[in-house]
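Q: What residues go here?
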């Protein structure tokens, strides 16, 4: 795994989940969950973007981090021309090809030998669709002061506070419960 805590997939969209490859951003820049090219390949697989880890190079890792940070800043409300250009440049890459596969659950579409540029293009295209649509206003940062993950609030009322109820939300409720007991 990229770190002892593993990857986080609470964002609701691949582009938002990709920003979670840096944890605890509030603490001296956070920590890197994709410290090497192999971890980047594992992230693509664990994110469900490809059935097997694609071969990744150091240059791919550098490009992925550049895209990730541009997406993160834009999701946080930034409008820097350089970030927009980075996302647009990657979104112009053709997405991975797909083919039907028979699985125990039925027919499923899966990418065919996706390359890292195609996968980064997929993430960037998702960011474009999110940031350019109505859901952009529903991107939130987790209310847990020890978490910095972003997520897409798909709750009906638009009042979700935590990246994950099973993680940060339950911790917060437990802290309030313990505080009330004193």
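A:
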């Amino acid at each position: 795994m990229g770190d002892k805590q593993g990857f986080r997939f609470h964002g609701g969209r691949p582009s938002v989940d990709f920003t979670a490859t840096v944890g605890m951003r509030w603490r001296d820049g956070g920590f890197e969950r994709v410290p090497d090219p192999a971890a980047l390949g594992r992230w693509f697989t664990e994110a469900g973007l490809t059935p097997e880890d694609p071969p990744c190079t150091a240059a791919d890792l550098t490009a992925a981090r550049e895209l990730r940070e541009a997406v993160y800043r834009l999701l946080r409300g930034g409008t820097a021309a350089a970030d927009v250009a980075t996302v647009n440049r990657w979104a112009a890459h053709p997405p991975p090809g797909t083919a039907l596969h028979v699985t125990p659950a039925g027919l499923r579409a899966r990418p065919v030998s996706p390359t890292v540029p195609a996968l980064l293009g997929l993430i960037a295209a998702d960011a474009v669709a999110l940031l350019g649509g109505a859901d952009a206003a529903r991107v939130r940062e987790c209310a847990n002061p020890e978490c910095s993950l972003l997520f897409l609030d798909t709750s009906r009322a638009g009042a979700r506070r935590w990246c994950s109820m099973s993680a940060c939300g339950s911790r917060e409720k437990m802290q309030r419960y313990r505080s009330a007991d004193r």
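A: Context that may help when evaluating the design: The helical segments are 14-19, 37-46, 58-75, 81-91, 116-131, 165-181. Residues 4 and 33 are 9 Å apart (CA to CA).
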